[in-house]
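A common beginner's mistake is to predict each chain separately and then try to dock the pieces by hand. The better habit, illustrated here, is to supply every component at once so that their relative placement is modeled jointly.
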Amino acid sequence: MRELEGSLKIITNTGVLQYIFKGLAFTLVIAVTAVVLGILIGSVLALARNYCSGKISRIFKWLAIIYIEVFRNTPLLLWIFICVVFCPCPKFLAHKMFGLSTVEVRMLFKAAVALILFTSSVLAEIIRGGLNSVAQGQFEACRSQGFHTVQIMLYIVLPQAYRNIVPTLLSQVVTTIKDSSYLANVAVIELMARVRQIMNVAYQYNGMTTTNVSDVFVLFGFAALLYFIINFTLSCVVRTMQKRRRRPAAQTVRA
Amino acid sequence: MAGIFSADAWQKIWTFRSTFLLGLGNTVKTAVFALLMALLLGIIGGLMATSGKKALRALARIYVELIQNTPLLLQMCFFYYALAFSGHSIGIIPTGILALGIYTGAYMAEVIRAGIESVPRGQFEAAQAQGFGYLQRMYYIILPQSIKIILPPMVNQVVNLIKNTSCLYIVGGADLISVTYNFVTGASTGGAYAPAYIISGVLFFIVCFPLSTLASTWENSLKKRDARVNTAAKA
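With all components supplied together, the output reads:
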């Protein structure tokens, strides 16, 4: 019992809490950034893979396919390691900021690049699913109205595609929040890494000189709770959206 | 990109080729055992989620939500530290199998649940009316109809499982990723970053690409067949 009290003392320590919640903020910012930029890159990849079928533009199609398949079939951690070694970091970012040291900021940038590249390959396939769900008649209607290919994509096809995949995109945010924990392998920035860091020095905070099993349960349980609250809320939103969407569709079919 | 074209670095990789193959072997071994565990948990979870009993359904729901909404890395660390600090350490690879099995099991449970739920209710009732027991009903009536819906996403989960073995790195595993990292940072072997990462990536790709391609073509052909059936039914 004394051990558990000691463990609880860790997560009621204001300094520790601040440290952990800062990590949570980083996790969220990293994940949202990765998804937003991933959507941009992914859209380009999806469009290239789906519609570049001209004689010369076919090259882009194959480049997109290679990119998507390579990233989809190799683990994220490999790309984080690769980016940590090979990704250049712009000079203006190599400063102390957000309470991180220069080294950590550079590490964060490099690892984030890996996460963005990886996420964009997943998002490309999701967006492609959205593009394929747009009815063929839409293209023909646009052509007959004199729209240019770029205009068709921008004004007609992409908006419909995005609308169709909003639930899938949100559940990808959940996946990316979980994936961002991979950054813990290279730097102590986000939630997972910080909790593990506290775990390693738990004996300093729990009022005893040793680290106990109860520390493991309390600390990782606390981190799991934080992840769970955020992700579960998001998945509930996704589920309601999907349900609401299915209903009108089913009704139209019946009518 | 230091080293990509240096013959020395590639020579080093060739000399230590058994290290990489050992890592790949560990990754595949972990994945296979974790898959067996995940299938077992997935079948139990999926059957519980589709059973009429409220308590069983709730239990399956809690398992799936709890596992799917927290990172695998956290679960891996939790198991590893919890076992280590309670003095029951079972080694890194078994810990990995345990964590990966439980994690993938939650996804398998969802896949199996969706597959069983895709079979119309009338089939269950008709089977029951014909006097089939629960297991007979599942085996003879439901399984053959839902297997084609279950298998493609299941293969996708296997690909994810293989990629997720990289999680072992955080607890100091001996899987392909950890081996690669130790190789490029090792005192006597270090430096050959580009070739080592390329080899490791290629090995993963060789294992995962056929599986994920199989899953997606399978899914597409099923979709096409369904569309054909639907248009035929409408006509």
